[in-house]
Amino acid sequence: MTTPRTVLVTGGNRGIGRAIAEEFVAQGHRVAVTARSGSGPEGTLTVIADVTDAASVDAAFTEVEEKLGPVEVVVANAGITRDTLLLRMSEEDFTDVIDTNLTGSFRVVKRASKGMLKARFGRVILVSSVVGLLGSAGQINYSASKSGLIGIARSLTRELGGRGITANVVAPGFIETDMTAELPQEQQDAYKQQIPAGRFASPEEVAKVIAWLASDDAAYISGAVIPVDGGLGMGH
Ligand code: NAD
Predict the structure, then answer these.
(1) ipTM exceeding 0.90?
(2) Mean pLDDT calculated for residue range 55-84
(3) Alpha carbon 202 to chain centroid distance?
(4) How many angstroms does the Cα of residue 104 sit away from the middle of ligand 1?
(5) Ligand 1 atom closest to Cα of residue 12
(6) Is the entire prediction scored with pTM above 0.80?
(7) Residue 153: count of CB within 10 angstroms of its CB
(8) Residues annotated as part of the active site
(9) Phi/psi zone of residue 205: left (φ > 0), alpha (ψ -120 to 50 degrees), beta?
(10) 96-105 pLDDT, tens digit each
(11) Which residues, judged by CB distance below 6 Å to any ligand atom, belong to the binding site of ligand 1?
(12) 47 three-class SS
């Protein structure tokens, strides 16, 4: 049994974020999720927030702090894709993806660190992607944003590691969510052939690794990049 914590998961109304929130609830934590609309799973507090807006992120944290207490574990999960090949990629396609996935995570982590520094305890978990490690044709924007999260985790580890705060990255491969369901069936089959495990993962398989990183057992792990990809990137 791990110590019960106050947890905030961004983008927790569906997909991987929802599974993460469900796992933390199942393990007995106090859990809040942010959503732009809709609501998180049963047993969570849903707060409406857009990670592209610092004031909205700040208001979400304030509401969670008032209702559940200071945030001890933050999972920066909210993310988008806008795939297209380089010559067709507009500057807006690039900056919008960076603004949500990378700058959005920066806003969330910065706000979370305020309370964590006071408590001298914190667990920061950033949801990257195998694409941030390996690159991907048609995803220069997404890949850059997901690589950048590794820089955030490692710099945070150096800056705040002495204050009881850890920061780690989880890099999922192909996970069964709306994001991958949009891929044509032939493309899904082709990807499965490249994955040593021969299948996509369930969101729950990612959620369990994230919950473990937040647990008492992972207190000495920081600055790590943990792939959950069935061997696709072979631990790059
Ligand atoms: P999803 O599209 O189902 O969920 C994304 C979540 O992010 C949603 O809740 C959405 O509302 C939220 N979000 C998007 N923009 C936001 C904003 N501006 N403010 C607040 N919330 C916002 O996708 P998913 O597959 O569950 O992906 C979750 C994370 O996992 C993403 O960061 C994604 O890049 C990453 N990931 C997914 C896969 C995969 O195969 N599905 C693989 C690797 C990494």
Answers:
(1) yes
(2) 98
(3) 15
(4) 12
(5) 9
(6) yes
(7) 25
(8) 142
(9) alpha
(10) 999 999 999 9
(11) 10-11, 13-17, 34-36, 50-52, 77-80, 100, 104, 127, 129, 172, 174-175, 177-180
(12) strand
